[in-house]
Amino acid sequence: MEKNFEIQSFFHHFPASVAEYCFQLWQDHPFTFVVSKTRSSKLGDYRYQSKAGHRISVNQNLNSYAFLVTYLHEVAHLLVYQQYKNKAKAHGPEWKTTFRELFEPILDEALLPPHLVQALQAYLKDPAASSCGCGPLMEVLRDFDPPSDELPLEQLPEGTWLQIKNLTLCKRNLRRSRYLCESEGASKRYLVSKHALVKPCS
């Protein structure tokens, strides 16, 4: 279920060193802030409706650094909409510039782990529509996840049986950035991101 962010819980979802900065953005550009249930299709989103106003949601299962990246990604969408309305492309140059500018005040090794700063600097040269699309950044962000028996799909050999969501699938060949995965008997086929976390079947 989704829940509105309460002010007192805001700081718990961000790295302590940059939480105040993120809170100030919320105060300077008011929006409804929602912590969403885990969504496999996206890490967060931004919406604007004339009656409801601006709304940002971020998935509840993200570690604090992934939460930070997703939060600033969505705030950048809000700022671009405020300036350009629907005249700017969703992840076009206006958004890329705004996203970089939001990170500039905190892209400092005194505030964030050095290897994360380096990964972000590389990523922000030409940020993708989703941080999931940047393998090096995703690998660094996963360093801050709690221990898990899940692995990125790309680390498993072809022919491995795995579980993702409630599905048991067999990994097949790579098609651009996604692997073809098949159910038993190849009755159903799915294209799964190579960065997706899956659980190998024992």
Strand order of the largest sheet: 5-10-6-7-8-9
Helical proportion?
Answer: 25-40%
Backbone shape: globular
Number of DSSP helical runs? 6
Largest sheet, if any? 6 strands, antiparallel
What is the typical, i.e. mean, pLDDT?
91
Low-confidence stretches: none
Alpha-carbon distance between the termini? 32 Å
According to DSSP, the number of beta strands is 10
Work out the count of structural domains: 2
| Proportion of strand residues | 15-25%
Output the helix-strand order: EHHEEEHHHHEEEEEE
What is the alpha-carbon Rg in Å?
18 Å
Secondary-structure-derived class: alpha+beta
Produce a short descriptive summary.
With 202 residues, the chain is of the alpha+beta class.
Commentary on this structure:
By secondary structure, the chain is α+β, with helices and mostly antiparallel strands. It has two domains: 3-142; 151-200. Helix content is 32%, strand content 24%. The protein is built from six helices and ten strands, in the order E-H-H-E-E-E-H-H-H-H-E-E-E-E-E-E. A six-stranded antiparallel sheet has the order 5-10-6-7-8-9, with no helix packed on it. Strand 7 and strand 8 form a beta hairpin. Helix 3 (64-84) packs across helix 4 and helix 5 runs antiparallel to helix 6.
Topology:
Blueprint: E1 3-4, H1 7-10, H2 19-28, E2 32-36, E3 44-49, E4 53-59, H3 64-84, H4 93-103, H5 114-123, H6 135-142, E5 151-152, E6 161-164, E7 167-175, E8 178-182, E9 189-193, E10 197-200
Parallel strand pairs: 2-4
Antiparallel strand pairs: 1-2, 3-4, 5-10, 6-7, 6-10, 7-8, 8-9
Helix pairs in contact: 3-4, 5-6
